[in-house]
Amino acid sequence: MPAKIEDFMIQRIQTIWLLIASFAFSVALWPNIFLVRAPNEENSILADGRIQVWESHVLSSGAVISLVLAVAAIFLYKNRPNQILIASLSALVQIVLVLLSAFYTIFKLGKFDQMGLDLGVLSGFCGVFLVWIAARSIRKDEEKVKSMDRLR
Predict the structure, then answer these.
(1) Contact criterion met (CB below 8 Å) for 35 and 52
(2) What pLDDT, on a 0 to 100 scale, did the predictor assign at position 70?
(3) How many Å apart are CA 27 and CA 145, to the nearest integer?
(4) Are residues 36 and 102 in contact, defined by beta-carbon separation less than 8 angstroms?
(5) Which pTM was predicted?
(6) What are the E-state strand segments in the chain?
(7) Maximum Cα–Cα distance for the chain, whole Å?
(8) Cα-flanking dihedrals φ and ψ of residue 129, to 5°?
(9) Distance in angstroms (rounded) separating the CA atoms of residues 110 and 35
(10) Residue 37 three-state SS
(11) Residue 35 in contact with residue 59, Cβ under 8 Å?
């Protein structure tokens, strides 16, 4: 029996949101993208005045894990509860390991007012927001399916 187009069809807008979120999570992994910029100081921990994801195993593993989970959530479209769980876990990993680690580093240095967030952190916030929108859309689809099952 030939495969139906529905078998290959990925969910509607949720897939787009998760795909854009995974792209946003991957921005921090690019070589010349920084999480935080600080003024150059010779006696500072940040001799170059920048924090990149690749400078810490916690930051790099958090960025890679959140990216992989966001991509994996795209392919779980047949199991919506698991898709919501994996997508939310992706956002949680991004928040805890990448964003909070960057803020902790800024706070530890004591120069919160002199440091500025860069594209890596801003794309992380954008990715977390997009995952939230995708999870909302997945929940709406699940509610539609349940209401249709009740009508049968």
Answers:
(1) yes
(2) 93
(3) 35
(4) yes
(5) 0.80
(6) 36-37, 50-51, 116-117
(7) 71
(8) -65, -40
(9) 17
(10) strand
(11) yes
- Three-state DSSP at 51 gives strand
- Please name which of 137, 130, 127 lies closest in space to residue 65, comparing C-alpha atoms: 127
Please state, in angstroms and rounded to a whole number, the distance separating the CA atoms of residues 109 and 53: 17
Q: Which of 127, 125, 102 is nearest to 115 (CA)?
A: 102
Q: What is the token pair recorded at 96? A: 């805890």
φ and ψ at 143, to 5 degrees?
-65, -40
Sheet holding 116-117, edge to edge: 50-51, 36-37, 116-117
Q: What is the pLDDT of residues 107-141, one digit of tens each?
A: 776 666 667 777 888 888 899 999 999 999 888 88
DSSP string, 67-100: HHHHHHHHTTTT-HHHHHHHHHHHHHHIIIIIIH
Cβ contacts of residue 123 below 8 Å, gap of 6+? 24, 25, 27, 28, 33
Burial level of 142, CB count in 10 A (0-12/13-18/19+)?
middle
